Amino acid sequence: MFEPTLTFAQALDNQDPLKHMRAQFSIPKQANGEPEYYFTGNSLGLQPQRARENVIQMLDAWQSYGVKGHFEGDYPWLPYHEFLTKHSAELVGGLEEEVVMMNSLTANLHLMMVSFYQPNQHKRKILIEDHAFPSDHYAVCSQLKHHGFNESDLILWQPREDELLHIEDFEALLETNHQDITLILLPGVQYYTGQVLDIEKLTKIAHSYGITIGFDLAHAAGNIELSLHDWQVDFACWCSYKYLNSGAGSVAGCFIHQKHCQNPAINRFAGWWGHDKQSRFKMENKFIPIPTAEGWQLSNPPILSLAAIRGSLETFAMAGGLRPLREKSIKLTQYAVDLLTHELSNDMKIITPMDPQQRGCQLSLMVTKTGLDGKALFNALEKNGVTLDWREPNVMRFAPVPLYNSFCDVYHFVQILKRCLEN
Ligand SMILES: Cc1ncc(COP(=O)(O)O)c(C=O)c1O
């Protein structure tokens, strides 16, 4: 039974089978030397020690081997991305042949649209959500323009007054417009509200009309359990710097369903790293795509970034993978909901769904206290050692991450928030 006391939070921490994982991370310090209350894993995850070690290992390999590092050492660079495939595939529920770490998120979304947005004059519309992350919105609009169309070919799925996306509205949109729509791009977890979308159901509905569907999993990868292969998702892209703790701007992930990987005729932008490995260095000019997601690679990848990702994936493996992490995450976020509701329900509204299956770790807090400037509150929290993030117009995103946040972190955050609101 929930209790709003520090003793209760301490007891939850003592019972937490993953409490040892926090020591694997560097927690930024406040001016007084105490660790920050860091809840911004939804934006930039903290540094795993293994990431640091692996990056140093690669700097040492470069120092020792020079160009021979492509072939020598424990982790040669030529196949380095392959060292990430198994764990990455496990995290998103893909087959190993369906997953590759390459480029950045928006770049991969474009590459996927090159392959999967194949419009004609009659069937050319793209459906996205109205509140899509701006980069996704820009990418989609620029793809329309690239094909000679414009924003009138964009269909927007609107959230309702509760800020959430309702699947009945998606069904209604498709019923009316399916003859015009050729591609759907949606988030796995909506970045502003933290709402988890039902990827399996959305995919089924899209496919029942013969429409291709892809997902931006920036806020889903490393946060919730995914089964992209079984759900028949056509493609998905995600970044590695949020819940995957691989450092700012680190290399992104891409999933392409097996049924598409094995289709060499599929349109794509090509580069030598996507070419058949046996003949890559023959330097001939006939492109033969690798018949896996690797066939979409363009360039030889930044090894220092991949090294950080390898360290992060090893850290997930140390925790036993996503299943136990998600179990803790559900408890930790529910504890936060209970405490916030108990202490502050008059001053804050949680716009994230209350059903744990419809959210990941993030809660989006809307300040409702009359006369209070939400941004000033956010700044006051920062002064008191709490790191959250702010999203216009008036939402603070708070993401207790099961790998390194504790129940006591959440307890202290709510007490600081309460004090800031009182003052
Ligand atoms: C949902 C979502 N999509 C796309 C992006 C853009 O990512 P990138 O700059 O890695 O392309 C972000 C960045 O935070 C995001 O949150």
From TrEMBL:
Glycoprotein in keyword set: no
Pathway(s) this gene product operates in, as recorded in its UniProt entry: Amino-acid degradation; L-kynurenine degradation; L-alanine and anthranilate from L-kynurenine: step 1/1; Cofactor biosynthesis; NAD(+) biosynthesis; quinolinate from L-kynurenine: step 2/3
Q: Name any cofactors this protein relies on.
A: pyridoxal 5'-phosphate
Keyword RNA-binding included in the entry's annotation: no
So what EC number does this one have? 3.7.1.3
**Sequence positions bearing N6-(pyridoxal phosphate)lysine:** K242
Q: Where are the transmembrane segments?
A: none
Recorded catalytic reaction(s): these are: 3-hydroxy-L-kynurenine + H2O = 3-hydroxyanthranilate + L-alanine + H(+); L-kynurenine + H2O = anthranilate + L-alanine + H(+)
Q: Which UniProt keywords apply?
A: Hydrolase, Pyridine nucleotide biosynthesis, Pyridoxal phosphate
Q: Which Pfam families match?
A: Aminotran_1_2 (PF00155), KYNU_C (PF22580)
Kindly give the InterPro entries that the UniProt entry links to this protein. Answer: Aminotransferase_I/II_large, Kynureninase, PyrdxlP-dep_Trfase, PyrdxlP-dep_Trfase_major, PyrdxlP-dep_Trfase_small
| Residue sites binding pyridoxal 5'-phosphate per the record | L105, T106, F133, P134, S135, D136, D216, H219, Y241, W272, N300
Residues forming the Aminotransferase class I/classII large domain are: 74-223
Residue ranges of coiled coil: none
Task: Please give the superkingdom of this protein's source.
Answer: Bacteria
Question: Which HAMAP family is this protein grouped with?
Answer: Kynureninase
What family name appears in the similarity comment?
Belongs to the kynureninase family.
Tell me the subunit arrangement.
Homodimer.
Q: What does this protein do?
A: Catalyzes the cleavage of L-kynurenine (L-Kyn) and L-3-hydroxykynurenine (L-3OHKyn) into anthranilic acid (AA) and 3-hydroxyanthranilic acid (3-OHAA), respectively.
* The protein's name: Kynureninase
Please name the taxonomic classification of the source.
Answer: Bacteria, Pseudomonadati, Pseudomonadota, Gammaproteobacteria, Alteromonadales
